[in-house]
Amino acid sequence: MSAHYPQPDDKFEGFHSLDDEFTDDFQDEFLPAPPAPHQRTEPPSEGETGGASSSRLLKRSPDPSPDARPASKQPRTRRTPASPDPRAGSQKVRGNSSRGGKKPSPAARKSRPARPKGSNRKSKTKLPERSLPGVEGVRLKSRSPMRPPSPSRSRQPRWVRRLRKELPPYTDEILAFLLIAIGLLSFLTLLSPTSGAVGSVWSGALRQLFGIGAFAISAAILAAGALVLIPKLGIEARLNWWRVIAAEIFYFLLLAYIHAGIRASVGGEAGRVEAFARALEGRGGGIVGWAIQDALHMLLGDGVTGIVLLSLLVLSAIPALGIRRDSLTGLLARLEEHLLMVARRMEEMPVTEGAPAQAGGNGGRGTLTIEGLAGTGGGTDGNTPILVELPPIPGRPSIVTGETGAGAVTIRRPGPRPERTVPYRRLQGASTTQAERIRATRKIELRFKLDEHTDRKRIPKRSDKLPPLDLLDVTDFERPSEEEININAVIIEETAEDFGMKVEVVGVKAGPTVTQYAVQPFTQVDKDGKKIIQRVRVTRVAALAKDLSLALAAPSVRIQAPVPGTKYIGVEVPNARPGIVSLRPIIESEQFYKLKSPLAIALGREVDGKPFAADLGKMPHLLIGGTTGSGKSVCLRSIATCLVTNNRPDQLRLIMIDPKMVELVRFNGLPHLLGHVEVQLDRIIGVLRWITREMDRRYRLMEEAQARNIATYNRGRRKSRLPYIVVLIDELAELMTEYPDQTEHLITRLAQMARATGIHLVVATQRPSTDVVTGLIKANFPARIAFAVASGVDSRVIIDTVGAEDLIGRGDMLFQGPDAAGPIRLQGCFVSDGEMERVVEFWRKTWKGDEGEQPAPWERALTRAAVLDETDEMLEEAIRVVQQEGEASASLLQRRLNVGYPRAGRIIDALYRMGVVGEELGGGRTRKVLIPPDVDPTTYIINWRMGN
To answer: Nearest to residue 724, comparing CAs of 597, 599, 854?
Structure first.
C-alpha cells in the first residue's frame, strides 16, 4: 500500500514543504518500535491525507492498527474540518493565514475538550509520537506544529542591530582595516628607534602607559581587527568573553607584579622612587603597572603585596587558559600518584653486602649471595677484587639476577674510594654559571672581608637663611656579600690561568655600583728550589675584559691597567644590585667640607664607597657627555640643587638653558634664577650674547678696581658685590645643529675668558661627536664627565680615552679632573623630584631680596632685536633724526638716512604705530614729533614693545 504524497497543485489546507514538516515534527520526539509483521495498518482516508503531516508521509512500513495499541499509545493525527475527530481538540491545527491555511471553524473550536484544572496555559501541547522503520528510542527536537521555523536569534543587542542597519554595509571592513593599521603602526614604532614625530609620540605613550606590555596592546589591536574582518571571509568567530576578561585582568596584574618586583629589588623609599622613575621612562609595567602596585602597597604594605599579586595572577590565569575543575583535579591526582611512586622507590632499600639476592620472576633461580659471586667471600686481601651492589635502577633488569628494579653488581678494586663530585650537567635549575659551579663543587675560602663602611661627617655651621639639610633624603646603598666577592676573585684568577697567565687578586673595593678587584700581574713560584717572580704583561691582562665578562656573567667589565698611583690592575665588576647615592651624605662628608668653596659640588661616590666632591671654580667649566638615559640630566639637577642649597641668591645666580623643554623647567620660580628657564633656540643665542656682554662689563669693573678676579673684587665690599653666575646648558647638540657658528663662537669665548669674572659653564650633550664637541670647545673644558656611550670613539671624544663604553648607565660615570692623571669612576648623586621641589619651595617662601618677579636682564635686548627685525634696523637712527629736526617726513628720512623712498615711507609708518610721530596732515606738510628730544631711542623701543 502506498502513501499519497501531496503535490504543489493539490488543494488542501495547511500545505507546506516536506523540509518544513520534517524540521517541525521530527524534533525531540521518541519514535516507538516499528510494528510487527502481523499487524496491519489501515490506509488513510482522503480527509486524513489532505491534512496529515509529512511525518506520516515518510513512513516506510505499515503502522499497527489503532485497535491493537494501548490507549496511551494511540496515534493522534490531525484532521481537516471536513472530517472532524473528537481527539483533534488536543492538537492545534496546522496552518495559519501567513502560510495559506484557514482558521478552524467555530464548531471545531467548540468540539475541543476542556483544559484540565491546574494545567499551565503557556505550556506546549504534547505532540504525537512518530515512528520510523527500524528505528527505536530516538528522540528528536520538536517544535509546535502551528509555529513556523524561526531564524536563528541574534545574540547582539537591539541597539547594535539598529546601528548596523543604519550604517553602510562596508563599515565593518573599514573598522577592521583601521584596527589592523593601528596595530601594525604600534609594532613598527615600538621596534624602530626612529619613527618620526607621530610614531614617536604614539610609541612613547604606549611605553609610558604599559611599559614592556605595549607589545601586548599592539597584538590585541591587531587581533581585534582580525576578529572584525574574518566574518566577512565566511569564517565564524566565537569569543568566550569570560576568558577575555580574565586575560585582561591577568595582563594588568602582570604589569603590577613586574613593578612590584622592581620596587622590592631596591627596597625602601629608594624602591618607590626607582619604580616611579622606571614607569616614567616607559620601563617595567609602565604607569598602569606602577599605579596598581602602588595602590596595593598603600593598602597592604610591602610584605603582603607580592603574595597577593601572585595569588591573583594564578587565580586569573586559570579561567584565562580555560582550565576546568576536572582538569585541575586530574593534574593533582597524577601529581599525587607520581609522588607516591617516588616515595615507594625511596623506601626500597638496596641489598647490602652479604645479604642474599632474591631470584626474580617465575624462573625459580633460588638465592644468590655476594660472597658466592666473589668466590672468596670478599676477603681482605689487597689483590682480591670486591663486589659492590649498586642501588636499584628503575625499569632495568639486574645484570646478575635479571630482576626488574633490582640493583646491579659491579667490581671495585681495593684502595681508597675516589671522591664523588657533582657533574656540571646535573646542577639543578639554571646553575650554568661558573660562580654556581664553584659554589656547588668546593668549599669557598673567605680570603677577603669587607669592612663596615662609615662616612666621616663634618658639617660647617650653616646660616639660618640657607635651607636645612633635612629637606634632602638619605638612602643607604647595599654592597655585595663576602661570599660573592671571594667567588669572583677565584673566577678572575682561574680565567687568567686558562689563558696562560698567572695572576693573583690581592684586594677588593666594594662601592654602590661596582666592585674593584686589585689584580697583581705577578706571582711567586718555586723553580728548582728557588722562589722567583713570574710576571705577566699588563696589556695581556687588559685584553681579557670580554672573557672576564663572560666568566663572571656580568653585562660589562672595565679593566683599568694600571690604577693610577698603584702597582696593581683594577678589574671593575658591576654589582648584582646597584645602589642609589643620595646627595645629603656627600654634602655632610669631610671631603666636601675640605673644599671650603661656594661653588663646591657633590658628584657621587668612588668605587670603594668614599664620597667625592669637586670645586667648580677650579675646573673652571664642566663638559658632560653620554647617551640618552645614562644620567646627564640627573647630574645637572643634582649640581643645581647642591649649589642652591649652599648659596643665597645674592651670592649665586643661575642661568638655565633647556632646549629639551622638560628637564630643568621645574626650577622656574627659584630666586637664584635670572629670568626663566630658556627653551626657545632663537632666544638662547640672545642669552649667550648677554652673558658675553656681562663678562665684558665685569672686566671693566675689575679693571677700575685693579682686581685680578672676582674674589679679590668682592673682598671688603658689601653692597656692590658681584654674584657668581653658573650657566647650565642641557643639550648642546640642538644649538650646534641650528646655529653652529654663533654657538661655537660664544661658548668658546666664554670658556676662555669668563673664569676670572665668576662665570662658569656646565654643558651637557647626548651626541658626543666631533661636529658637536668641536676642538675649540673641547680644548677649553679641561674637566669632563663621561656617562655610558655607545662606542670607544665617543668615549675618546669626551675624555680622550676609552672606557666609557663599558659603563652600565644610570649614573655610572667617569670623571676626568683638570689635574688628574686619569679618569675616576664614580656613581653620581640622585636627587628625586620631591627633594628638588622642597628646596625650591623653601626659597620661594623665605627669600625676600627682590620686590616681585623681575624680568630677565637680556629681555630688553631681545625685545629690541625683535622690534628691529619686524620693522627696520635703521629705526633707532630715524628716531634720533626726527628728534633733532622736530618734524618728520619721508623725504627728510630719505635725505638724512640715504635710503630710497619706499623704505623711508615704511619707517614713517612704523614711527606712527609706535607713537613717535603724529598723523599725516596732508598738503605736503610734515608730521609732528610726539616724544621729547631727550628720550633714548633704544629705551623707548624696548618700553613700547613691553607695553610700558
So the answer is: 599
Dihedral sign of CA atoms 616, 622, 627, 628 in order: positive
Contact 63, 44 (CB under 8 A): no
- Cα gap 504→510, rounded to integer Å: 18
Q: Please give the residue that has the higher pLDDT: either 68 or 308.
A: 308
Cα 584 to chain centroid, rounded:
30
Put simply, whether the predicted model's pTM sits higher than 0.70 gets the answer no
**pLDDT (tens digit per residue) in 391-447:** 554 544 545 455 554 444 444 445 554 444 444 444 444 446 777 788 778 788 888
C-alpha to C-alpha distance for 796 and 816, rounded to whole angstroms:
12
Question: Of the candidates 74, 69, 114, which has an alpha carbon nearest to the alpha carbon of residue 90?
Answer: 114
Question: What does the chain come to in residues?
Answer: 948
CB-based contacts of 114: which residues, under 8 Å, 6+ apart?
A: none
Nearest to 12 by CA among 97, 81, 76: 81
Bridge partners of 917, per DSSP, are: 929
Residue 257 has pLDDT above 70, yes or no: yes
Tally Cβ neighbours within 10 Å of residue 643.
Answer: 23
- Give residue 227's pLDDT: 79
Helix 859-870 to helix 875-885 angle, to the nearest 10 degrees? 80
The pLDDT tens digits for 840-865 are 999 999 988 655 556 778 887 777 77
> Measured between alpha carbons, how far is 398 from 351 in angstroms, rounded to an integer?
12
Q: CA–CA separation, 519 vs 19, rounded Å?
A: 93
Contact 44, 52 (CB under 8 A): yes
Residue for cell digits 646655529? Answer: 739
Give the contacts of 651 (CB within 8 A, at least 6 positions apart): 598, 723, 724
Alpha-carbon span 888 to 167, nearest angstrom:
70
Identify whether the C-beta of residue 141 lies closer than 8 Å to the C-beta of residue 28.
yes
928 in helix, strand or coil?
Answer: strand
pLDDT of residue 424: 41
Count how many Cα atoms sit within 13 Å of the Cα of residue 356 in the half-sphere of its side chain.
7
Nearest Cα to 66, choosing from 30, 35, 111? 35
Q: E strands, 135-232, where?
A: none
User: CA neighbours within 13 Å on the CB side: how many for 41?
Assistant: 19
Q: Is the dihedral of CA 830, 833, 835, 836 positive or negative?
A: positive
230-235 own/partner pairs: CB under 8 Å, 24+ apart = 231/172, 232/172, 232/173, 232/176
- Give tens-digit pLDDT for 760-813: 999 999 989 888 999 899 999 999 999 999 999 999 999 999 889 989 888 999
Q: Tell me whether the omega of the peptide bond preceding residue 620 falls within 30 degrees of 0, making it cis.
A: yes
pLDDT tens digits, residue range 878-895? 888 888 888 888 888 888
Beta bridge partners of 510: 515
Q: Are 552 and 505 in contact (CB under 8 A)?
A: no
The set of cell numbers assigned to 921 is 596732515
φ, ψ (nearest 5 deg) of residue 370: -65, -35
Contact 922, 908 (CB under 8 A): no
Contact, 548 vs 518, CB < 8 A? no
Q: What is the DSSP string of 630-689?
A: SSHHHHHHHHHHHHHHH--TTTEEEEEE-TTSSSSGGGTT-TTBSSS-B--HHHHHHHHH
* CA dist., res. 653 & res. 658, Å (int): 16
Residues 722 and 698 sit within 8 Å (Cβ to Cβ): yes
31 Cβ partners below 8 Å, 6+ apart?
Answer: 129, 130, 131, 132, 135, 136, 137, 138, 140
* 242 grid coordinates: 569570560
- pLDDT at residue 507 greater than cutoff 60: yes
